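FORM 7B: Structural annotation worksheet

SECTION A. Query
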Amino acid sequence: MSPETTVASPANPSRSVGSVFRKLFASPLALPLIGLIVVSVLMGLASDNFFSVSNLLNVLRQVSVVAILAVGMSFVILTGGIDLSVGAVMALAGTIAAGLMVKMGMPAGVGLLAGLLVGLGLGFFNGVLVAWGRMPAIIVTLATMGIARGLGLIYSGGYPISGLPSWISWFGVGRVGIIPVPVIAMALIYVIAWVLLHRTPFGRHVYAIGGNEVAAKLSGVKTERVKLAVYVISGLTAALAALILTGRLMSGQPNAGVGFELDAIAAVVLGGTAIAGGRGLIFGTLIGAVLLGILNNGLNLMGINPYLQDVIKGFIILLAIYIGREWR
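SECTION B. Predicted structure
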């Protein structure tokens, strides 16, 4: 065996392993997964109950509403936009649905359908103003947030609307076997979102607009239609989240969802999606939402002051954004 062969042969496995690690850490999911594992281990060390099956299922159930909101937010942010109205849209959709069932005496199915239409309608409203009105998304959705919140308070008189049919609770607290219904709904919505983003021309157009809207338009992408569609999706996911929250609370809450838009944005960013758009994976958003849920749950189990929890989460989000920026 020649000296050259002796030297080259042990080097090949090392290069191969290095290549695997480079590919692994080049994935947008690398940092979110590392963060999730590290935080989970730390929380597990801090609390004996953290890794119990009941606690983990409870974490997933608790994060389901924000995780579903974050699906629509992912579509919007991938195009370079933002949607600050999702929390208020969720509240209005749940309030209208509950009001039609309780105040108007309509069948539950009609009320739930109306709630979904409220989400779709407000998403369409946002999309038209952003895509064809060429107004800044942050201003449009901030205004829509105020409109939706105000309409919900006017319709309900500022009070929760309770007295819903008992079976509505199934959406919020029901189980299929040991798996909570909100967790199943969350998983299905993420699978559908993954198919839309990664297996359809629409998904490719979403990424193209976020990467370079002018180039996308010149290449034939109907940018206005795509941007309209992502805001409609955001409104729809807000309404679906409202269905779960209404079932959990068994009432329409006009004040529900305050601050949820910030949690949804945080989940998207923690999941590795570029805030400027064009880069990110939908399952990264799911990891980001679960990471937020684990932080909340673990800090509660440790008895950390709720106000201090907000400070800790804020610093962690800033750190995640900074590390992601430097890494990529």
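SECTION C. Observations
Residues 1-10 have pLDDT under 50 and may be disordered. Strands lie at 161-162, 175-176, 179-180, 251-252.

SECTION D. Sign-off
Analyst initials: ____
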